[in-house]
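Project outcomes to date are best conveyed with an example. Our students and postdoctoral researchers have been running inverse folding experiments weekly, and each run begins with a structure described purely in tokens. The record below, which covers 108 residues, was selected by the lab manager from last quarter's runs and is presented without edits.
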């Protein structure tokens, strides 16, 4: 990725309220450690709620609550197989932000 791809075009008009809201909600989603752990796990492959709970040593109710929050922001999606829901990430832009932030944190 070139530096030009990372540059924000500041020549645009002010940010509208909807954009500001979405940006703030996205950063809110990424500000909670459990949601970060879930998204990081989903960056590899899809998982069921039970798999996520087991792999991250979390209660199923906690995972379900966080997945609902992430789904409402369209950061995760699911597919149904019988009675099981399999979750995967649904926004490559946000996943790239998460990966870059993790890399940034690991290099400090």
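After processing, the design step wrote out the following sequence:
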């Amino acid at each position: 990725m070139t530096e030009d791809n990372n540059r924000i075009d500041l020549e645009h008009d002010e940010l509208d309220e909807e954009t500001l809201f979405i940006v703030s909600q996205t950063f809110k989603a990424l500000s909670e450690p459990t949601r970060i752990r879930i998204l990081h796990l989903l960056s590899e492959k899809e998982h069921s709620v039970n798999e996520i709970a087991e792999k991250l040593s979390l209660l199923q109710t906690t995972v379900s609550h966080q997945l609902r929050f992430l789904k409402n922001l369209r950061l995760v999606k699911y597919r149904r197989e019988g009675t099981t829901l399999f979750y995967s990430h649904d926004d490559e832009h946000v996943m790239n932000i998460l990966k870059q932030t993790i890399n940034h944190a690991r290099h400090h």
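The radius of gyration is 16 Å. DSSP finds six helices and three strands in the chain. The training component of this project remains on track.
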